[in-house]
From TrEMBL:
Residues 4-254 form the ABC transporter domain. It comes from Amnibacterium soli. It comes from the Bacteria. Keywords: ATP-binding, Cell membrane, Membrane, Nucleotide-binding, Transport. Its main location: membrane. This is ABC transporter domain-containing protein. Pfam families: ABC_tran. InterPro entries: AAA+_ATPase, ABC_Ni/Peptide_Import, ABC_transporter-like_ATP-bd, ABC_transporter-like_CS, P-loop_NTPase.
């Protein structure tokens, strides 16, 4: 299987077990939704997979990575430098707040080209061309003009598209998206979710999508994993988990979570 295999992931912080043996498979070409009530460990799962858990955290378990070209039996066993290279090149992350991955004082063009030159060793000219292509790929209008602008000159939805462009710049194979549309208006959400789906299909990305919103889940996830108290209690095809949950907890969760299907994506896609 290409993608990520998370097995028995445990995170202990200050004597508390935040993750208690998370098992979840994130296959290439699919969106794996991670649902669960607040505090169940969704965000920590994404961060720990990337080696970005809070300082002092004790981590055990394995995260196997395979993109068909590179196989890493356990990302958690890599030295910090090697993990850092995996993060820049092969595994990317998108957060709720797109400004988290963008510098306010630098133009979008400078940020994208610096990133491409640093990670891929491209020349200035080649990096600029690729930066414009990337903005086109994520459907930012007028990419050439956009490259000259600064983050504060874009709307939230456009900024999230730009953050996604930065994330896919080095052609990663895994994308961890943590509440990527939570801060956006419902109509803008739909466009960003459609883009995520398109990138998953076209680039064969393995996407782990952390969200507390069932509307978002119904719109793009292939499978849904439900977390409770730091462990996955149910994982199955989206329609099954949402319509016919097997565990009482998943049933309760499905009934309690917000469900705001963004217009134009989703429910029809099964
Ligand atoms: N920096 C930290 N230090 C210690 N504990 C933390 C830290 N960040 C989060 N936690 C704890 O880890 C647990 C899991 O948090 P996490 O953010 O993964 O939950 P979540 O399911 O993503 O919830 P939410 O939907 O509210 O973001 C929570 O009990 C939280 O209090």
């Amino acid at each position: 299987m290409t993608g990520l295999e998370i097995r028995g992931l445990v995170l202990e912080l200050g004597g508390r077990r935040i993750l208690d043996g998370v098992d979840v498979t994130v296959p290439a070409g699919q969106v794996t939704g991670l649902a669960g009530e607040s505090g169940s460990g969704k965000t920590m799962t994404g961060l720990t997979v990337m080696g970005l858990q809070p300082a002092g955290g004790r981590v055990t378990g394995t995260v196997a990575y395979d993109d068909g070209e590179v196989q890493v039996p356990d990302l958690l066993a890599l030295r910090p430098g090697a993990l850092n290279r995996m993060r820049g090149r092969r595994i990317a992350m998108v957060f709720q707040d797109p400004t988290a991955s963008l510098q306010p004082m630098l133009s979008i063009g400078t940020q994208l080209t610096d990133h491409l030159r640093h990670h891929l060793g491209l020349s200035r000219g080649a990096a600029r061309t690729r930066a414009a292509e990337l903005l086109e790929r994520v459907r930012v209008p007028d990419p050439e003009a956009a490259l000259r602008r600064y983050p504060h000159q874009f709307s939230g939805g456009q900024l999230q598209r730009i953050a996604i462009a930065v994330a896919i710049a080095c052609e990663p194979k895994v994308l961890i998206a943590d509440e990527p549309t939570t801060a956006l208006d419902v109509t803008v959400q739909a466009g960003v979710l459609r883009l995520l789906r398109e990138l998953t299909d076209d680039l064969g990305l393995a996407v782990l999508l952390v969200t507390h919103d069932l509307g978002v889940m119904s719109a793009v996830a292939d499978t849904v994993a439900v977390m409770r108290h730091g462990a996955v209690v149910e994982h199955g095809p989206r329609y099954q988990v949402i319509r016919e949950p097997r565990t009482d907890y998943a049933k309760e969760l499905v009934e309690s979570l917000p469900h705001t299907p963004p217009p134009g994506v989703g429910e029809d896609r099964s």
